[in-house]
Amino acid sequence: MVENSQIQLVENLDLTAPALNRFVKPNGISKLVAQYGTPLYLIDEDTLHAKVKELHAAYTKFVGPLKIAYSIKANFNPAILRTFITDGITFDLTSIGELHFIKQCKAAPENIIYTSVTEEFEEYLEVLQSGVRKVVVSSFNGMTNLAKAASKIGVKVPTMIRVNPEVGVKAGVRASYRNGKFGVPFNGGTIDSATKMIKHLMDNDLLSFEGFHFHLGSQITDFSCFIHALDKMDAFITKMKKEYPNFQVNTFDIGGGTPVSYDEPVPSPTQMAENLVSRLNQLVDTHGIFELMIESGRFLVAESSILVSKIVNTKEYSEHKIVILDAGYHLLLDAALLKQEYPQEIVSIPKNKVKTTSQLPTKNIHLAGRLCDTYDIFPLSKVSSLNEADVGRYMSFYNVGAYSLVFNMPFHCQIKPPVIMKTAKGEFKLVRKGSSYERLFIEEGGDIF
After folding, report:
1. What CATH architecture is 45-301?
2. Which of 148, 191, 202, 214 could in theory staple to 140 by disulfide, Cβ–Cβ 3.0 to 4.6 A?
3. CB 227 within 8 Å of CB 214
C-alpha cells in the first residue's frame, strides 16, 4: 500500500534565469531600496493566489467536499490574510492574538478553525464569543474547558479531536511521535486518549463530535507516514462505530506537510495527493462522506516572498571570501534554528554602477549577517548564485514567506524592516511600515520612569 510513497522528485525552483523577475525588474529593486532602504521584504500577491489554486487542484479527485486551511502562524501579515480571505479558504488559528488579527481583517467566523495548545477556559470563552464554532481539542482538560465555555455562551460546539497517530515521520520538523506534545493517542489508559474523549463527547449536551485532526510534520517528502496514519484512523473509526452506532466523522483534517523547495528538489502537491487521495476515498467508501481539510502554512506563503539585503562589507582570506550583509538571522531566524538554506541571488544591475572588488570568482563564499553572534551565518543553498558578491550590491533571499516575518526580533536593537506587496494589479504597496529606534525604545520601556 505504501510502495509508491518514494517518488521521483521535481525541481520547483529555477535559478537558471534571474528569478527576481517573478517579482520586480532589477531597476525596480533600485527604486524600492532608494525609497525604503534595506533590508526589506517583498511579497507577490499573485503567488499567494496561485499556491491556493495549486494545493486545491491537487486534491480534486477526492470524492467528498474539500477545504484548504491556512495556518496563519506561518505569516500573519494582514495583507496576506486579506489576500487569502478573497480566496474563500479556512484559517487555522491557535492563539487569541491570531484571532484578533483575523477578526480585524473581517474573516467570516465560519471560515475559522481553532486549534489551541493551552486550551484555557477564558481562551475558549473569547473564541466562542467571537462566533467561531469549529474547535479542535487536544486534551481531556481542554475538552472540559470548552464545554464550560459553551455552557456559559449557550451554544453547542462542533468539536474535533486532535489525535497523535504515533507513526514514524521523515520530515524537516516532526510533529507526531510517541508521548508527543501535540494531540492524544488513540488509546493509552488515561483520560487523555481519543477513546475516552469520544466516550464523553457522544450524546453530550454542550459539545458535538465533529471529526478528527492530525498533523505529522513540516517538509514531508516520504508520504508513507500519511498512509500509516490513515490506516490507523481507519481501524479506530471502525472500532468507534461498533461501540457507538450513531458515530459519524463529518470533518477530517490531515494537517500540513506539503514541502517547499529550498535547496533540494521536492514533490509537488499533485504528487503528494496522488499517494493519499485513493486511501482517503477508501475511507469515504467505508465510513461515509466527510469534509477533507488540507492545512498548509509554509507551502501557501513561502514562495511568495523575498528578502532584499545589501552587501555592506567583504573580506578575503586566501580562497575564502566573507560577505557581510545588512540583514541577519533576526530577520530569517530559521537560517540559525533549522539551518534553512534559503536560495540566494545577487540582484543583476549594470556593472559600471558598482565597484567590483574582486575580478575572479572566489572559491568559498561565507555569507554572514550583521549581528555580533557566531551563529549569524546564512547557509548557502545548492541553487544559490553569488557571483559578483561585492560591496554595494543587493542580494535577494528567496522563499522567505514562511516563519520569517513572524520571527523578527530586536536583537542588537534591530528594528523591523518594511514589507512591500506587489499587488495583483502590478502596483507596489507598503503593507508594513518599518519600525524605528524611537518606537523600539518606547516598547522596551524607555518612556517609563
Report:
1. Alpha-Beta Barrel (3.20)
2. 191
3. no
